[in-house]
Structure formats: structure tokens, C-alpha cells
Amino acid sequence: MIPDPRERPTLSVPEAGAYVGLGRSASFDAARRGELPTIRFGRRMAVPTARLRQMLGIDAVSDVSDSGTQVEGDGPRLALVTDAGKRGASQADARGDQARPT
């Protein structure tokens, strides 16, 4: 089972690929093509657990807080912009903005 993003925010590329039935090389190829969502830390690529769960149709994080009460959705939500998402990006993204309200 794919971990909860609150407990493990990122996975290695091979770990994420294994969840969708890919081997190590195929996982890195899929990441380079933008088929696996990735973020970069220098030369290291990591797969955000929440984005992988979302891609697979699994709830990334429930809308219930730790206390069990419903969380209000009154604040802006941020969308992660990956390298693959920058290909047709707006000028704001081209300046290096990594998150934008949705």
C-alpha cells in the first residue's frame, strides 16, 4: 500500500515505479518523460506521495483533521509544478514560481 503522505511525503523513483508495476530503469524513464510526478533536489528526483496517490485515484489526504473534525476548505490550494508541467508553462512559472493557487 502506498504510504500516507503525512507520514512519508516522498518516495524514491524506483519505489514509486514498483507501485505501478515498473522496474528500476522503466521507473526512471517514466519519470524523465513526466509519466511519474517528480520533484528535484539537485540531481536527485523524488516522487511526492500525495501526487502519486492522486494519479492512481487514491485519496491523497482525507479532509478530516487529526481531531476527527471536518476541515474547512476556505484557504487557497497550491498546485505543485513539476519539470514536465513547465514545458507549456506561463510566464510566472518560467520565472521559477513553484506553486500557484488553484
What's the helix and strand layout?
Elements (H helix, E strand, L loop, with lengths): L9 E3 H7 L4 H10 L5 E3 L2 E5 H7 L22 E3 L10 H4 L4 E3 L1
Antiparallel strand pairs: 1-3, 2-3, 4-5
Helix pairs in contact: 1-2
Description:
This protein has 102 residues and is an alpha+beta fold. It has one domain. It has 4 helices and 5 strands; from the N terminus they run E-H-H-E-E-H-E-H-E. Strands 1-3-2 form a 3-stranded antiparallel beta sheet. It has a two-stranded antiparallel ribbon with strand order 4-5. The longest helix is centred in the first third of the chain and has 10 residues. The chain is globular, with a radius of gyration of 15 Å.
